[in-house]
Predict the structure.
Amino acid sequence: MSNIGKVFLLLAAVIAIGLIVYQKQISQFFFAPEGLSLAASEICLQNQTEQNLVVDISVQGGERMVVLLVPQEQGCAASPEISRKGLIKVGMNEKEGPFCRLEAVSGQKLKLNRFSVEDNCGWPK
């Protein structure tokens, strides 16, 4: 076998081993709806209501993400470090209230159980 053939065989073996070892991360990156985050931390919210809601997640010194979340969908905003403060604002549309607000800390994955402004939504206790 020539040297080029040996190099190609070695390279193919390394790639195959890498695919086996990192299979979960690779499939999450390409196939999970939220993808794989490379951020140090995130603030995430999952919409567990039966409504489509506009969610605005702002992380202090980090990312601001505004997205329409359908039921069971999750949205996350990246943070440059763990335990960075942020704010989650939820409403029926982006421009007009009423809104529910919750202060959060990066590293949290929260679930919104109901959208009811009168009692500040169904935030986890």
Notes: The radius of gyration is 20 Å. The chain has a mean pLDDT of 81.
